[in-house]
């Protein structure tokens, strides 16, 4: 976005000063735009400062407060204004008096100030939008709407997005050090495609070939076109994954047609919109269930059986660490459709127990404000090991230990945000 902003200002005021060289104000403007673009894009993650020890709630504090208030439209706009004001002050303060008096510099000041404001707003809001695209989700409309919104479409570190974004930046107006860093980042993401075991070999070949072709194409494009083609390519890749996600969700809905379906949590295979890992939440009047599945949005192109066979985009969210997990076909299936959906594990519990725990364990009730696919195991001393199956069941950042009800409420007086529990439908 910073490169696109500089390109926009250059077109508005012209590239050169009267002497034929680039105006000093424009040189400094480019630096300001780059710094502001990075700061605005990352600033919503400021909640990492307080979501840990500062709120004194352990892992629960992180779950409730990361992607919290700083990941809202209100915060994005306020922080964008603050970052814009600071950046504009720094940029204009660094210009000498004769540069401020220069006609080109004056035009840069007028056009650049507006462009920086737009960059700041787009930067902070884009962070929210990108966080929405995956299964973690955001609740951007606080304080007017405290519900979570989930895109369920893009892998958390999607190689295709890096491949289309880096080449336009690589050939942009930056120093050798910056080019080397970008080239290393591109090489790193391609190496992960081949070595991390997350990307099927044919897909890794496609990503690598596309990266090489896109790199050469960007070199041949006019400089002012590069940032915009990169943005368009990013939108195109994201659109493909959203279309695939919608098709995958439709395949699950067609399979579970008895009215018990409550939610479908989807995560695509890395770099491959043909394969999705799914957590399917169903509920009857007496039972709550979480099931794993492999889903193919386009089964004629690449079936779910093929996705499961290569173990990429398959049962990424295993329930195996929980007691009582079974591998049975859901009883609510209208038609198995084996090429579209391959079922994995099933974990279930009575809805009465779900409601009782929510009513008697304050930590459990608080964790439900984050957990979209809660599952748990009881240990002998009465402690509950509560997990969100989206992030695995064998430990990790989304596992919370809930003390026995006899121990009292450990979070009394703590800062509990007002997020609507994703599984509010089971608490009514």
Overview of the structural elements:
The chain is an alpha+beta fold. The chain has a domain at 1-132. 46% of the residues lie in helices and 13% in strands. It is built from 13 helices and 7 strands. Strands 1-2-3-4 form a 4-stranded antiparallel sheet. A 3-stranded antiparallel sheet has the order 5-6-7. A hairpin with a 3-residue loop joins strand 2 and strand 3. Helix 7 packs antiparallel against helix 8 (176-195), helix 7 runs antiparallel to helix 10 (226-255) and helix 8 packs antiparallel against helix 9. The longest helix is centred in the first third of the chain and has 30 residues, at 103-132.
Distance between the termini: 44 Å
| Contiguous uncertain segments of 5+ residues | 15-21, 333-337
Helices and strands, in order, run as HHHHHHHHHHEEEHEHHEEE
| Secondary-structure class | alpha+beta
Form type = globular
Beta-strand percent range = 5-15%
Number of strands: 7
Q: What's the tally of helices? A: 13
Estimated radius of gyration: 25 Å
Helix residue percentage: 40-55%
Mean pLDDT across all residues, rounded?
86
Major β-sheet annotation: 4 strands, antiparallel
Query: How is the largest sheet built, in terms of strand order?
Result: 1-2-3-4
What's the quick description here?
By secondary structure, the protein is α+β, with helices and mostly antiparallel strands. The protein has helices spanning 2-13, 24-42, 59-65, 73-93, 97-101, 103-132, 159-170, 176-195, 201-220, 226-255, 304-309, 351-360, 362-367, and strands spanning 261-269, 272-283, 287-295, 341-350, 374-378, 384-388, 399-402.
């Amino acid at each position: 976005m910073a490169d696109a902003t500089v390109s926009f200002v250059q077109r508005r005021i012209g590239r050169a000063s009267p002497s034929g060289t680039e105006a000093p104000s424009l040189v400094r403007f480019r630096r300001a735009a780059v710094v502001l673009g990075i700061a605005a894009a990352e600033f919503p993650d400021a909640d990492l400062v307080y979501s840990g020890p500062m709120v004194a709630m352990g892992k629960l504090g992180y779950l409730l407060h990361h992607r919290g208030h700083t990941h809202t439209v209100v915060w994005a706009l306020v922080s964008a204004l603050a970052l814009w004001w600071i950046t504009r002050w720094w940029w204009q303060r660094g210009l000498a008096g004769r540069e401020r008096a220069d006609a080109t510099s004056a035009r840069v000041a007028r056009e650049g100030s507006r462009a920086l404001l737009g960059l700041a707003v787009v930067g902070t809001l884009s962070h929210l939008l990108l966080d929405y695209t995956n299964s973690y989700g955001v609740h951007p409309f606080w304080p007017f709407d405290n519900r979570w919104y989930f895109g369920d479409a893009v892998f958390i570190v999607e190689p295709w997005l890096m491949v289309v974004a880096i080449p336009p930046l690589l050939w942009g107006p930056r120093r050798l050090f910056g080019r080397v860093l970008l080239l290393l980042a591109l090489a790193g993401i391609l190496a992960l495609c081949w070595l991390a075991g997350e990307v099927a070999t044919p897909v890794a070949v496609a990503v690598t070939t596309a990266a090489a072709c896109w790199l050469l194409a960007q070199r041949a494009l006019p400089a002012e076109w590069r940032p915009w083609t990169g943005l368009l390519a990013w939108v195109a890749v994201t659109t493909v994954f959203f279309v695939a996600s919608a098709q995958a969700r439709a395949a699950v809905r067609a399979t579970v047609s008895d009215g018990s379906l409550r939610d479908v949590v989807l995560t695509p295979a890395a770099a491959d919109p043909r394969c999705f890992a799914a957590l399917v939440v169903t509920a009857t009047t007496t039972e709550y269930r979480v099931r794993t599945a492999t889903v193919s949005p386009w089964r004629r192109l690449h079936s779910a059986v093929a996705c499961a066979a290569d173990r990429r985009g398959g049962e990424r969210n295993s329930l195996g660490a929980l007691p009582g997990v079974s591998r049975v076909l859901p009883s609510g299936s209208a038609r198995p459709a084996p090429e579209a959906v391959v079922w994995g594990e099933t974990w279930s519990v009575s809805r009465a127990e779900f409601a009782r725990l929510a009513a008697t364990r304050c930590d459990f009730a608080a964790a439900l404000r984050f957990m979209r696919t809660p599952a748990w195991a009881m240990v002998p001393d009465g402690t509950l090991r509560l997990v969100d199956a989206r992030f695995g069941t064998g430990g990790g950042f989304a596992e919370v230990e809930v003390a026995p009800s006899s121990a009292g409420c450990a979070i009394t007086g703590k800062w509990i945000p007002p997020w609507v529990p994703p599984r509010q439908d089971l608490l009514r």
